[in-house]
């Protein structure tokens, strides 16, 4: 064997070794791609039930929102009725009620003032209507 043939043989061996070293990562990469393909396929298969469930949930939520809209409309009507009732009450009973309260307050104040004035005039007398002396 000549030196060129030996060099060619060494080069061929190195090339085979290089191919074997590169084949291992390529095989692992192929397995990884297979697993990724399987995961994507499973995700695609499981997407349909999830979307169907989401659609059912949205339908249920829309039904509940329609009920809430009805409740809100009824609450708005009740609020309008209470406002109207309050206005009617204020117009019919509010003014006379305020006048009655003011009259009652005035009468009670006049009675207190009269009692105070009477007590001031009677304050100089002791018990039994006798005049009290300042020395006793």
Descriptive overview:
The protein has 136 residues and is an all-alpha fold. It has one domain (3-118). The chain has one helix at 3-122.
Descriptive terms for the model:
136 residues; mainly alpha; 88% helix; rod-shaped
Give Rg in angstroms: 52 Å
The overall average pLDDT, rounded, is: 85
What overall form do the CA principal axes indicate?
rod-shaped
Instruction: Name the poorly predicted regions.
Output: none
Distance N terminus to C terminus?
A: 158 Å
Helical content class: over 70%
Write the layout of secondary structure elements.
Layout: H1 3-122
Please give a quick description of this structure:
With 136 residues, the protein is mainly alpha-helical. The protein has one domain. The chain has one helix at residues 3-122.
